[in-house]
């Protein structure tokens, strides 16, 4: 069972949903979606990041039920279909004039309102007892007010789960002659938007995602020629008392309470694609800084006190302690130093050391969460933003680690990390950073190959397979998929495109957005190779990027530095030790070599 937090519990209680893994996950997705929609500029990001995820989660807990329960599930399903249709339409018509875009959105909302009405009247009913047996679909044909196509999307567009069906109602309108009995209906009638009604009488789960949280607006009036008024049941209110018989050439409105006759069979159910899960074994990682076997906190405190007492500072004594103790042991030293000496160890190191030696020592006396929080604060403080630090940390850190960093950031600096990132960045780059910070991705080695195939196809159609690029698809997939899932998708993408994912990203995107996508892709393929590349680039050419070199070595020396050294040797044909010795000097060099066990 997924951990139930207060926002999810409130949502489940509000909508009367049972507590299960599926409903808790759905409530969590919707809570994130609603939060983003209420923030400045967050609605667009929410549509890009969470829309399809919520739809897929919804299908996973749809079940048959009886009576009012079936109506509730059916209305939820219709909402899901409407949201998916609107999301895809808005994403694919970004250059459409705003007035035309709003008109089409209102038209589709009006269609949805009419669908809800038909559910309440029992005209559209649920067929199929559970989500394991996808029911058939035979929705009434309904052309849009603008005549742009069928208002009810086909069930194959939405994957598995249940789909609504019609009980056979014929609308009261004139018949249109057709050359074939299989030709689709082309009704020109428009449905007026009415307040949607949930059979439970409570608020709708997706209310407020598009438009207002009350009833949808009426569609804009079209200027199409008016059809001649039909006689009989289609007569106006003024002629209700007239009981004239309809012509034999006209259809008589009637409501059928049984299944459609054999001449109008329901569509064949679309088989659901079952997930095919494969698991990649988690790689065993080896750090170069290990806990000291003969750790004596009192002796270490006195050694550090002696090294910084009086004139000058014994750098080698400081290196002998800090470079060969684990982070947990260093935290004990800091606490005991404060208790025994009455001074803060970090403040003492800052006053005694200078330059790169100072940066390494101060980094080592912080916890892993504190160090990353410090790096992010430094990257966004003052004028300008160091985007490379944001990219490195948000692409390489796990979701659970980033959650700890966010809490630490709030505690140390009294600021919300997510809000700071959003205020310092913009556009697609910001949307992807927000996704990396907020989405709880899996940290296991499991990957769904069916999902990988679908994601690869979606990315191809959003980039190489069309003119222009639909960045929203890239943001959604690279925000929500785990490293194992992304790595599986890369293989499927190469089968479709004959290009690597990295080549496709470089050809379809640019700027910081491109750099972040590439960093995520590299981390998914080979995290240790990614850091080996960063260390190599920090010492490549004239000069040394000491900030990047220190950042990589300090953050990985207690995680996977052995594997990073191996990747460095394999990629660049020389040992990392040799490169560090050639680009650094003095006690700073000794400090770094001690951290990588050389």
Please name the defining characteristics of this protein:
single chain; 598 residues; mainly alpha; two-stranded antiparallel ribbon; two-stranded antiparallel sheet; 4 strands; elongated
Unreliable stretches covering 5 or more consecutive residues: 59-66, 128-270
Strand line-up in the sheet with most strands? 1-2
Overall strand count: 4
Distance from first to last alpha carbon: 46 Å
Summarize the main sheet. 2 strands, antiparallel
Structural class: mainly alpha
Explain what this protein looks like in three dimensions.
The chain is mostly helical and 598 residues long. It contains 25 helices and four strands. The protein has helices at 6-15, 21-37, 42-61, 68-92, 98-120, 297-308, 315-322, 327-341, 345-352, 355-364, 368-380, 387-396, 399-413, 417-424, 427-438, 449-462, 471-480, 483-497, 501-508, 511-525, 527-539, 546-556, 561-572, 576-583, 586-595, and strands at 124-126, 164-166, 277-279, 446-448. The protein has a two-stranded antiparallel ribbon. Helix 6 (297-308) packs across helix 8. The longest helix is centred in the N-terminal third of the chain and has 25 residues, at 68-92. It is elongated. The model is unreliable at 59-66 and 128-270 (pLDDT under 50).
Draw up the topology in text.
Blueprint (H helix, E strand, L loop, with lengths): L5 H10 L5 H17 L4 H20 L6 H25 L5 H23 L3 E3 L37 E3 L110 E3 L17 H12 L6 H8 L4 H15 L3 H8 L2 H10 L3 H13 L6 H10 L2 H15 L3 H8 L2 H12 L7 E3 H14 L8 H10 L2 H15 L3 H8 L2 H15 L1 H13 L6 H11 L4 H12 L3 H8 L2 H10 L3
Antiparallel strand pairs: 1-2, 3-4
Helix pairs in contact: 1-2, 2-3, 3-4, 3-17, 4-5, 6-7, 6-8, 10-22, 11-12, 11-13, 12-20, 14-15, 15-17, 15-20, 16-17, 16-18, 18-20, 19-20, 20-21, 21-22, 21-23
